[in-house]
Amino acid sequence: MAMQQGPALDKDVVIAPVALQGAFAEHQVMLKKLSLKRKICVVLVRSEEDLAKCDALILPGGESTTIALLARLAGLLEPLREFTKIKPVWGTCAGAILLAQEIQNPKKGGQELLGGISITVERNGWGSQVESFEAALEVEGLRDADRAFHGVFIRAPVVCSLNAKPSEPPIHVIARISAGLLPKTQTVVPHDEDDTDPTDARTIVALRQGRHLLTTFHPELTADHRIHEYFVSECVLSTCA
Amino acid sequence: MTTPIATPNGSPLPPPVAHGVGNSIGTPVVAPVKSGLAQMLKGGVIMDVVNAEQARIAEEAGACAVMALERVPADIRAQGGSDPHMIKEIVNAVTIPVMAKVRIGHFVEAQILQAIGIDYIDESEVLTPADEEHHINKHAYKVPFVCGARNLGEALRRISEGAAFIRTKGEAGTGNVVEAVRHQRSVMSEIRKASVMNEEELYAYAKDIQAPFHLLKETARLKRLPVVNFAAGGIATPADAALMMQLGCDGVFVGSGIFHSGDPAKRAKAVVQAVTHYNNPKILAEISEDIGEAMVGLSIDDKLKGGRLANRGW
Q1: Among A122, A220, A229, A234, which one carries the catalytic annotation?
Q2: Which CATH architecture describes the domain B32-292?
Q3: Which among B23, B33, B40 is the nearest to A134, CB-wise?
Q4: Which of these, A84, A143, B83, B106, is most buried using a 10 Å CB contact count?
């Protein structure tokens, strides 16, 4: 993994949801509502030309197969991979799948990923839409840490394993769900029913690696800006990430 | 091309979960997990498929979901009636969400589809209605519903019954976009009208269009429907899809238009790209080239085989 860079200090920071398919407008609105010391400029990315202006990206929720195909057809797949190697990127749900290094249960014939975070995820880990759920989450590092973050999980992916090599930035887990919420259909790993299990990767719902952020739920579907704020200040603007 | 300002379909939906200081958002009109899945489908194309093979073609072409049914509307017109039973095979063939249709008012068909584990139900006028007075009480289900509408009143009545997602009715199975345009224009024009009304006028307007007042008021405030709104019924070309997007839709359904065309895989991919790049005529020109014969468009008049489906629903 190449050295990840923060934005130059002398200009506005450009942060962009990738606007190929999915809930990109929701992210755009959330970003515009942030009040931070540094001025941020929010644009949408649909082409290589748009991408060239960006300091950081958000890969939104949507369908990962659709977004990957549209990226390829727009000539964006390789540029996005290059971008991901050096600049901050946050993936939510489908975006989290794209940002993973490896996936289980891809579409038949496999599907294209961007990589960027050294984990394996399982697509539709919980099953169909009837298994979608909401849960109160404790997310480390947020402002007002005592206040739970409302996690909306929609056909969400499940984190299967963390695979960071010693040469790569370490993976830092920032939120887990209780093991009782895990998909019942999967092989059961021994766990403590009452609490978030620190040994089971599948309970992880938010994590960081270097300047990359991953959430398997949808902060953009709530009115709570704290994870957007976290991404901008900790992953994009911070000089010590 | 960068879009600096939000276009009609780029305009945000209300955050369904009210949290945070100083939040003025009221109660969500539907549960966040239900409306949320529709939000994930935005900017995408949902394709009608009749078997697992077509479902795979749709997934490879970038469909964000498929609608499983026994026959596409153009064939339902020709053969009458439909009763989906290939759904499970389709569910197993693809990783994207699978939707399926039930007859208007047929709540048992809905119970069955929910038990199968379908991702979304379309209470659809394309099938013969099971009830000529009542629609399904869609609040009672875990699985979310999409419903067709020809105007704002109809859309808000469906949302009030629990629909988490609205589409134009258009005229399915015709390959003719004119009715979808009419319905989308009605919805948008009525929203614009409502958005400048004061409260007394909104009460009168709610009565006039037979819509629940609180939903009309929320729509007027948002200047858009409070749920995701797709185009459906007669979309056959990439340009049709882009037209509906520019008229303010969040995405499109393509039924017969794909698998009744000369080269389904190519056309499907072109429509998918058209929905993403709907505002970029240069890209639209490129993707509209060399995509095979379009489905033959039927004129929508009294002689239309199977009659006008859009008149079903109340």
Answers
A1: A220
A2: Alpha-Beta Barrel (3.20)
A3: B33
A4: A84
Q: What is the ipTM of this complex?
A: 0.90
Summarize chain B as % helix, strand, coil (round to 5): 45, 10, 45
Max mean pLDDT range (A1-15, B14-28, B79-93, B119-133): B119-133
Using pLDDT thresholds of 50, 70 and 90, give the confidence band for residue B74.
low
Q: Do B272 and A66 touch (CB under 8 A)?
A: yes
Using the Cβ of A127 and the Cβ atoms of chain B, whether some distance falls under 8 Å is answered with yes
Using CB atoms, pick whichever of B3, B94, B275 lies closest to residue A107.
B94
Chain-chain contact of B16 with A221 (C-beta, under 8 angstroms): yes
Phi then psi for residue B100, to 5 deg, are -150, 160
* Residues in chain B within 8 Å Cβ distance of A93: 40
pLDDT band for position B24 (cuts 50, 70, 90): very low
Tell me, what's the pLDDT at A217?
A: 97
B48, B72 contact by CB (below 8 A) = yes
Say whether B96 and A66 touch across the interface (CB within 8 A). yes
With bands split at pLDDT 50, 70 and 90, how would you rate the model's confidence at B5?
very low
- B6 pLDDT more than 80: no
Under 8 Å between Cβ of B260 and B268: no
The structural domains of chain B, with segments of one domain joined by +, span 32-292
> Active site includes A93?
yes
Q: Do B40 and A124 touch (CB under 8 A)?
A: no
Domains annotated on chain A, with CATH: 13-239 (3.40.50.880)
